[in-house]
Each structure stands twice: as structure tokens, then as C-alpha cells.
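New to this. Comment on this protein:
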Amino acid sequence: MDTSPLAERDLAVQAGLGFLGDNDCLINDTWGSWCFIGAVLTTQPLEPDRPLERSCRHCGACARVCPGQCFQGGTYTYRTCKSYLTQKKGELTESEQAVLRKTPLIFGCDECQRVCPHNQQVPETPLAEFRRDRLLRLDRQDLANLTNRQFRERYGSYAFAWRGKKLLLRNLELVEQKEQQESQ
């Protein structure tokens, strides 16, 4: 769940970089929805590309696995999206907390992307920056003991770092509560 002053997904569709899936992700012919979108603003005259003639298969796989049930009546709403909720500052309602507890991730979600048929045969990226070791688990006590400066030094290059450790600690506590309940 990204925000930008530009409608990057719509611009990417118009530029022929992909099409929008039911999950509101840009789906590229090569990378599926496992891609990042950026923009370059220029006064340089450029030959415009055409939008792709392909579209989402509307298979419903994303809707079936969505922890937040974001797909209501044929439309997508981000307000119950787990990725959005893991980034939302402040207190969460009980129903929002329940969405966060549905999967073990404490930042982001990607369940809809994991099951999308357009993502099943994508190649591994050749860019080393995107292939580095994934951080699979954070220790709540270790995270709590870090100063903000230590947090930035250790995790500053990760996508979740911009939201800070307080939000991650909240999310981690919610996920751990569920894990503790399941182990009892």
C-alpha cells in the first residue's frame, strides 16, 4: 500500500507497463505484480506508449485469500487491507487488530500477490539490491531495546523502516498474541 502525489499505477497503465489487477496492483507482463513503480517528470518530448490490451483474469484468487476482505461488491477498498493496516499509525480497532493477526507478517501482506496467476512464472530479479537476504523475524525485546538511532542504523535500508519501531512493536505484539493463543 503505497501513497504518492502522482497516480503512479494509472500512469504506468497508460504508459503500457502493465494492467491493473482486481487487487489494485500493476501487473507487468514479465514481473507480474512483483515490481516497483517510479516516475520521471521531464519536459523532454517523448513518444507515448500505448496501454496493454491484456487485463486481469478476474479469477477471484486474490479475493479468496485477502485477510482484510478488501474485495466487496466487485470493488477493492484499501481501508481493510492488511498492508495498509500494518502501516497505519495510532490505535487500531478490534476488527483492524483481527486482520493483522491473520498472517505472521508484521509489515505488509502480499497474500493477494502470492496467489495471483500472473505471478506464478515470474523470473528472479537480476538486481542484487532486491535479492538480498530477507529479514524473516524480528525479536520484540531486541527491537524495544534499540534507540531510534540504532534502529535506523540496523534497519534503515528496509522498506518498513520509514514507519519506525513503535509501529512495528505494536504489530509484532498483535501477531505474537495470536501465536501464544494458538500454542496454548
